[in-house]
Amino acid sequence: MKGIRFFTLIIGLAIISCSPNDEAIPDNVDLKISFSQFVDGTPVQLDQIIYKNALDQQFSIKTIKYFISQVKLYKADNSVVEIPDIHFVDIRTPETLIYTFSEKIPVGDYTGISFVHGLIPEENITGSLGLDLDRLMEWPVPMGGGYHYAKIEGEYKTQQTESFFNFHSGAFEGVDYAIHVNLLNQPFTINGSNKVINLKMEMLNWFTNPTDWDFDYFGPGIMGNSEAQQVVHDNGIDVYSFEVIESLE
Amino acid sequence: MRVGNILFFLGIIFLAGCNDKNESPAFVPTPYDLKIPQGFPEMTIPEDNPMTQEGVELGRKLYYDKKLDKNGARACATCHLQSKSFTNGPDVLPHVNLGWSRTYLWDGKISGSMEDIMRFEVEHFFETNVDVFNSDEEYKNLFKEAFGVDEITTDEIVKALSQFFRILNSGDSKFDKFVRGEVELTNQEFLGYELYYTERGDCFHCHATMFMTDNLMHNNALDVSPDPGYFAITGDSLDYGRFKSATLRNIEYTAPYMHDGRYATLEDVVEFYSTGLEKSSTVDPLMKNLSRGGVQLSTEEKAALVAFIKTFSDPSYLTNPELSNPFQ
């Protein structure tokens, strides 16, 4: 009987010690950033001319490719978590839609994030990101070199014309049009091992505020158009938002 | 215990003597000094197939030998002539700078490493009979020197060919010399250069990097009803009419042009991109001037673009003795 009581005690202790409520929260956790793209709050549907810009011009989206770099997470204690990696996103390549930071980040309260849509000049060097990205995103040396910051492509229909458009942005004629996005004063908490920052791009915002994009005026290609690059830059300030979610499941 | 120890060490010695294959312990090939053209990125060489002089030379011999073919009817070089930058007609893309490639053949049938495409060629295109080589004393010696094997398998043939393909590199054209600051372009060539690398001519998106190809599949608006292309490989309707972007390296030597060889001259090709685009459902949005038939170049611009594209020609590649037929 003594043996049975002792065995029961051990089992009981084991069960108590396995309670999930007692799991210690680690000081540092993995960070994932997911990238998603929307039109008027709904996930992008590729290849269909079902969207309208602020000027009521119809368009479709066939391509969304872009770089995110210089990501910073601001903690409530005024410290900053810096992510040095450059991440390439392609809506048609699912593995690019999730980024996992190679280091763990501290748990705790954060006040916001910032990042660069595109590349800072020091990192915008032809050939520096490897051949695969050169092939996809190279910006010609005669136009300043480096990389496209983003490629958004599709078709548009206006009263005048029906055409493809290549909404390609990058540094041009020595001007850095990379967009420094600050999503500050938006507190969130990292307190588990599966925290994910979902970085959302609202496509309609590329085409309005402060300038309504006129497909007829800017035409199908804008790489050599300083005015267009400036509009893309200025309109792009409010394209992004984020939310912190528990997991990607 | 002593007997046990002796048996243990004998076992270790026995196991150590068992190589993965039938490699000779004295096998020491000579490293090959692969020279990468200035301005080109490093080439990825797989650890299990390092470049060796013996391997490269054997690959070269295989490239020119009809024994590679099950029926003995053709060699690689039958359709890939050095005098034409290793091509000879529309069905065959030129063998140039493929060591940096990730997709192969017009329809993108094979993607991956050089060894992957060579395995396809050996096993499926030529259907190579390995016994032919195993019954050839000269080849047996060459394979032993290159890979240390007594019995040749498909693996060694694939590796040798891959090594030779990795030296089929062209990087000494007038354009390369211009990039290196060694020569100037003529005024006409420079106009072509500006057209090529801006959206006015808009060649650079698909014919990108120093290799003048993005290695991707595109429908470039050739036809209202295009050939299946990449669709035949993937079954994805979005891939209908998509073909690999051909490199423009040495394009002057590789006529006729397009996957079906429909254009005899570079002038024809430039005219197509200027005024001849045809709409179909999968045309790449990079063909952004589709709605007006093309980029609408002037006569002067078309001539300039052709002149610039000819600066990609590297005549030394056509006569490089390291790449030539070893049987002659």
Could you walk me through the main structural features you see in this protein, from its secondary elements to its overall organization?
The complex is a heterodimer of chains A (249) and B (328). Chain A has helices at residues 2-17, 131-137, 215-218, 226-235; strands at residues 28-29, 32-39, 42-43, 51-52, 58-59, 63-75, 80-83, 87-90, 98-100, 105-106, 108-117, 150-157, 162-169, 179-183, 188-190, 196-202, 240-245. Mean pLDDT of chain A is 90; it is low at 6-22. In chain A, the strands form three sheets. In chain A, strands 4, 5, 6, 7, 8, 11, 12, 13, 14 and 15 form a ten-stranded antiparallel beta sheet that branches. In chain A, strands 2, 3, 9, 16 and 17 form a five-stranded mixed beta sheet that branches. In chain A, strands 1-10 form a two-stranded antiparallel sheet. Helices cover 15% and strands 36% of the residues of chain A. Chain A contains four helices and 17 strands. With 328 residues, chain B is mainly alpha-helical. In chain B, the strands form two sheets. A two-stranded antiparallel sheet of chain B has the order 1-2. In chain B, a hairpin with a 5-residue loop joins β1 (103-104) and β2 (110-111). The longest helix of chain B has 15 residues, at 2-16. Chains A and B meet through α2, β12 and β13 of A and loops of B.
The helix/strand series of chain A, from N terminus to C terminus, equals HEEEEEEEEEEEHEEEEEHHE
- Largest sheet: number of strands, sense, barrel closure of chain A: 10 strands, antiparallel
Radius of gyration of chain A: 23 Å
User: Count of DSSP helices of chain B?
Assistant: 13
Low-confidence stretches of chain A: 6-22
Number of domains of chain A: 1
Taking pLDDT < 50 over at least 5 consecutive residues as the criterion, the unreliable ranges of chain B are 1-21
Alpha carbon gap, first and last residue of chain B: 66 Å
Give the H and E element order of chain B: HHHEEHHHHHHEHEHHH
- For the report, how would you describe the main beta sheet of chain B? 2 strands, antiparallel
Q: State the shape of chain A.
A: globular
User: What does the average pLDDT of chain B come to?
Assistant: 93
- Main-sheet strand order of chain B equals 1-2
